Amino acid sequence: MTLLRVERLDSRHGLLQAVRGVTLEVARGETLALVGANGAGKTTLLRTIAGAHKATAGRILFEGSDITAMPAYARLRAGIALVPEGRRLFPDMTVEENLSVAGGHGRPGPWNLNAVVEAFPLLRRRLGSRAGSLSGGEQQATAIGRALMANPKLLLLDEVSLGLAPIAVEAVYRSLESLIAAGATVVLVEQDIGRALSISTRVACMLEGRIILEGRAHEMTREQVTEAYFGLRRAQRAQR
Amino acid sequence: MIWVTQLINGVLLGGYYALLACGLSFMFGVMRIINLAHGDFAIIAACLVFLVADSIGIPPFVALIGVIPLMAGLGWLLQRGMLERSIRAGVLVPLLTTFGLAIVIENGLFEWLGADTRSLAPYIGDLAYDSWAITGHIYIGSLAALMFVVTVLLLVGLKLFLTGTSLGRAIRATAADADTAELVGINARSVYAIAAAIAVALAGLAGVFLAMRETFTPYSGPTLLIFAFEAVVIGGIGSLSGTLVGGIVLGVAQTFGAQIDPQGFLIAGHVVFLAVLAGRLVLAELRARGRFHGGLAPLDGGLSFAEFSRRFTLPVQLSSLVRRLVIATGLVWRRARSLPITERLHLLAYRVRDIFFGSISRPTEKGDLDYIVERWTRTSARSSIVAGALLVVLAVGPFAFSANIVDSLTNLFIYLILAVMWNALAGYAGLVSVGQQAFIGLGAYFAIQLSYHGVPVYPALLLGALIAGLLSLPISLLVLRLRGGEFAIAMWVVAELAHLLIILDPLINGETGVSLLALNAFAPDARRAYNYWIALATMVVLLGLVFALLRGRFGASLRAIRDDEDAAKSVGVRVLAGKRIIFFVAAFGCALAGALWLATLVSFQPRTYFGIQWTAYMIFMVLAGGLGTFEGPILGAVLFFLIEYMFGETGVWYLMGLGAAAIFFALFLPRGIWGTIEDKIGMTLLPVSYRLWLARPDLEPRNMQEVNEQEFQ
Lengths: 240, 713
Description:
heterodimer; A: 6-stranded mixed β-sheet; 10 strands; globular; B: ABC transporter involved in vitamin B12 uptake, BtuC; 4-stranded antiparallel β-sheet; 4% strand
């Protein structure tokens, strides 16, 4: 059953068109990984779905209703939560305040302060600390926890492993896997193709604002994705 | 014993200042806006409570219950109607719009209520003068004590609200990062409106307290804003408890100053403010040196004047021209080697023409033009000829025109100087100053001093302006490190302080002023003609100077500073040095305008010369004409001149109209009349920047972009 449907979506930064006519669907319980080189439009696509960026054309349907014009804060209430690139915590507020500020504005549901601490035990002793003073891994856990506090139906994750130590990446992904196993619907951007293929049910590869390759994760090879990632096929066509 | 009493009074006064300041600080903390109409909102509340108490007889403390929510509503409207749009438009726009609003409010209140001095003291009974005796000699005013207690309770309450409630946390989250706040479900737009409502309600309460403890007029707002700002800066901007400390420091300084001299009240406050500012800058500098430079960096980190003049002198310009000719023609020749000789020569001719006339066309490997960079166009060449012809006509003015027209034109030239100077400062260096009247007044003042010391009168005008201009250099050490609104108000404080200090000079006779009697040695007609020619010559020279400065590399670096100071620094622009040069030029220009104004008016009344209305005029001229365009302020000055000619008689309405027009232009036509024309039809008459055209318009239609000269060297 379709949870999110994006139709012919365009999104721009001034003169630069970052997302060009993207159409995609995400079914309930599915995990979609977006891969692609820097500047391919992945982050802009996620931010446009979350409402942090305006769409210039196209539609976004969530649970069948059109949310293209809905502001970001209302989309959170409708059930879309984004963990933004670079975590973007409120640095002068405590971890607990960071979490509860989202909890107070989201939907009711199983996720609350206790549940988040349960899922990310490393946060237990840090609840009273300033978010700005945490380590990268702790900050990422807080950022994911903050999104979960809103009890989203759709979780958007933008490069959650960026800038983290390998051991912290492992910890974050272990938590994600258990989330996904529990039936969450996730769209994530990941630079590490191997990790993207292993965690997701479907993979979409973006190049210059378009989705140029899409399919079931287990039917795709690393080579196919790499080829699409760098736009190799297109370059070969152009040479011929 | 008297000092202990003064200390207590000062501390209590500080409580009141903290109340005045916390709204300003709060708004800055959440929205990064300094509301230049903050004091005027306080006066609105004072007027409302006064009207209710005076006409219906409702006691002020009861009236507060109705007025405070009303003020909150005004704050909400302010945010939704004006600031929301302003914030989106950039850092400078909120300053310009709130300044325009301040003018509208002040003159609106004046039109409505008249100039009477009012006070709420008669309506609060004994409280106005009651006091408790602590010991035999020390008394505490009960009203002052009440205000102190209320302020402390409010500050504590605000703190608890921000940390303990869900709305408070939402406000803090939005203040930290509005985009992300939206992503965690906070409606940032309504949080901003709520924050503005709180800030304006706090201002209103402070205004009512002011009205209880002393008198007020419709024009009291700006003084309140300055006090509030000083308290905020002394205490540390954005911190609520700091506001209390800052208010107390200011209050104590003022009461001690008043003990020494009646004028000392204000002077001591401003001096403490500037001293704290200086102390903070020195401290920051020492810290930075300790960490990063090992004590080797010069204090201002910038370019000295000697170094500057070495770089920008004619030989350097000439050698650079020759170098560019050699390199560029060689490049064209080599790159176009695959073409037939005639086409190569053709391209070469283009290149040479471009270098001399300032536009650059760049051939690609295939020989066709990839993009075209242009500066002078046929239109701009023609317009320069027209401007030259106009100048020739103007030069014979006194022989041809009637006395009235000559006088009016002299005024127009002075306005033009002011507009161009303010535009150089705000439009090209991003420095919005609301204190340029400091230099207008100082220029006139030094001219008078020199003349009374025996310097011939016309040289005295020029020298006086030069002294005032040079005075901008030490001032620049203090103010140029501040950004945005902080710089704006710090300049205002400088202007106020200059005004206060100058009326201490016995020569000036306080606010009564003095006349430049030496001018009477000239016959009226001769004086008129001299003034006219000097104003015209000054205008041409200053315009030429600014034009020359802006065209070169220096102009490009200034614009880089305006657009993004940190980015400019990172590509090697000497930010402070650049700002300082333009700050000096603008100060000197304004001082000259002030001296010329003195030459036409003869009399020097400090209040007129140091008045904030000059800033209102300058902002109007520049915004209406086009901020950051070279031609705009010229157009704006002419427009202002005509408006003043037609509506100047209507006084208050005229000023309100100017304020409203400034708001309108800042919000809806941010590039002004000229900027809009330039954007729409792509015409520049006196180009100071380059423009990039794609040579193949089929790719992207009329895609133009300003580029730095450096890119092409």
